[in-house]
Design goal:
The chain is about 45% helix and about 5% strand. By secondary structure, it is an alpha/beta fold. Helix 2 crosses helix 3 and helix 5 packs across helix 16. One of its GO terms (cellular component) is nucleus.
């Protein structure tokens, strides 16, 4: 008698994939029998892994089938809007959804569309939506909530090693801020306008003992910046949208990638995030458990806000000042840096944050085991005497502290208007190359001669004894690898030229 076919939800398929990952040496036939599946079904699920993960990200885990809508773009815009407003604490019912659907259809130029009750039912089923009543929240820090969390936290983290406890958070950055402008910008919340063209949102994530700093995700205003044309490799993950904001889709993608990474290592982690509207609460993962910090308490409870991000900005602004002084010395008219330069500066700055700084900031926020939070060391927050090398050589009334903290209040997420969502949907595949800057130029890749000349300059610097022995050793290793790669490319080019001759 043939086995009755059973439709599996995405959650059940994820459980199957988890079982496969946990038993890599087990025969698929035996594993299928254990799971109560036909061997062909198991093979299909394994073969569709990427599709399943993508559908989970889009539809949620409780849906059994990724049903295609008649008006795909309309539903994508509506779903994004729904996720953003509910994450922000706004109650949404069926009537509101239908009204928004009609508005979006009008904006997209869809004729004869009517958001009927039947359409709404199918839309909810396709995307696994349910209505929940969400309570509003004030912006004032509730000390009782802070105290209650600090009492609860030890139990939450007791089953995890420090290396498996993570925090993720976003911060805005004015990557081209000039020192003379820092006073007029400080304390202003930037949500749009001209200043936004010089800003990015950066997603940071690290673990509590400082042993693991995940590669940064940076969100700019353009999906295809001109200055990336000659870059085949970026030092960060890069995304783009009109406001350079974190979105629910971007954060889901980050979580999905992180869960996949931890699954490949057979590792379970605990991730703490704040209640930003771009952080979805409706999805779960096998290897990443997401815990939300109490609302409006992150200044007290979030490690990245306790000095880690400030430390990154300190390093970044120091690099920016040194580049500015170098440009002034060379009498260059354009003192700006490109977005690509900024990404490299960010990666360097993130790398310069020490494990001690990170672990101390986690301790400060109550993540200490057997160590009172009050005994936490310096979290590298700048004091009143904070300074940057070369700052005294600049003509500015601003202090170095003002310069570092000027973008502390930059918005990193928010509710996106229907007009912006529709515009994003229309332009997602047809956006021209742009940085949002009229005068940005695309640097050409250096020639082999230029590269070897640069190495020669660096070698003379090292030989002059200007660096430590450790730095010198790293330079010589880098030099050997770079020359080896250059010579390898030359050989490959010669072989290609030989076989392409006629």
């Amino acid at each position: 008698m043939s086995r009755k076919r059973k439709a599996l939800s995405f959650k059940e398929k994820l459980d199957v994939l988890k079982k496969v990952d946990e038993n890599p040496k087990k025969k698929r036939v035996d594993l299928a029998k254990e799971l109560g599946l036909a061997p062909s079904t198991l093979c299909t699920i394994v073969g569709q892994r990427e599709v399943i993960l993508k559908n989970v990200q889009h539809f949620g885990v409780n849906v059994k089938q990724a049903k295609t809508a008649t008006h795909v773009k309309l539903e994508e815009v509506l779903l994004t809007w729904f996720r953003e407003v509910t994450a922000a604490g706004v109650n949404v019912d069926g009537k509101v959804l239908r009204e928004k659907a009609d508005t979006i259809a009008l904006s997209l130029g869809i004729e004869n569309f009517q958001a009927s009750g039947g359409w709404l039912h199918r839309f909810k089923e396709r995307h696994g939506l349910v209505y929940r009543v969400v309570s509003g929240e004030g912006k004032k820090v509730d000390q009782s909530a802070v105290d209650e969390w600090l009492n609860t936290l030890p139990a939450l983290i007791s089953e995890y090693a420090p290396r498996d406890i993570f925090n993720a958070d976003e911060a805005g950055l004015f990557f081209n801020l000039q020192p003379e402008r820092s006073l007029c910008v400080k304390g202003q919340a930037c949500q749009g306008g001209q200043k936004s063209k010089e800003r990015v949102t950066v997603l940071f994530c690290c673990n509590s003992d400082g042993s693991e700093k995940l590669q940064l995700t940076v969100i700019g205003k353009s999906k295809k910046p001109r200055c990336f044309r000659s870059a085949e490799r970026l030092p960060v993950f890069y995304k783009g949208n009109r406001k350079a904001w974190m979105t629910g889709d971007f954060f889901r993608e980050f979580l999905t990638s992180l869960d996949r990474k931890m699954a490949s290592r057979n590792r379970k982690i605990l991730l703490f995030v704040d209640q930003c509207s771009a952080h979805p609460k409706e999805i779960t993962f096998n290897n990443v458990t997401v815990r939300f910090l109490p609302a409006n308490t992150t200044s007290h409870l979030q490690p990245l806000d306790a000095g880690i991000i400030r430390n990154v900005k300190h390093h970044f602004k120091g690099l920016l000042v040194r580049r500015l002084l170098a440009k002034i010395d060379r009498k260059e008219a354009n003192l700006r840096i490109s977005l690509l330069d900024a990404l490299h500066f960010l990666a360097m700055s993130w790398d310069n944050v020490t494990s001690d700084t990170i672990s101390n900031c986690f301790r400060k926020c109550g993540f200490a085991i057997g160590l009172d939070a009050a005994s936490a060391g310096d979290c590298q927050e700048p004091g009143e005497d904070f300074t940057i090398d070369g700052w005294d050589n600049l003509e500015t009334e601003a202090s170095a502290r003002d310069f570092v903290t000027a973008d502390d209040n930059v918005a990193t997420c928010g509710l996106t208007s229907i007009e912006d969502l529709v515009s994003e949907a229309d332009n997602c595949e047809h956006e021209p190359d742009s940085d949002g800057h009229a005068d940005d130029e695309c640097d050409q890749p250096p020639s082999t001669a230029d590269t070897l000349h640069a190495l020669d300059v660096l070698r003379r610097t090292v030989s002059a004894g200007s660096v430590s022995d450790e730095t010198a050793a790293r330079f010589y290793a880098f030099q050997a690898g770079l020359v080896r790669d250059i010579n390898g490319k030359k050989v490959q080019a010669s072989i290609t030229d030989f076989f392409s001759r006629k």
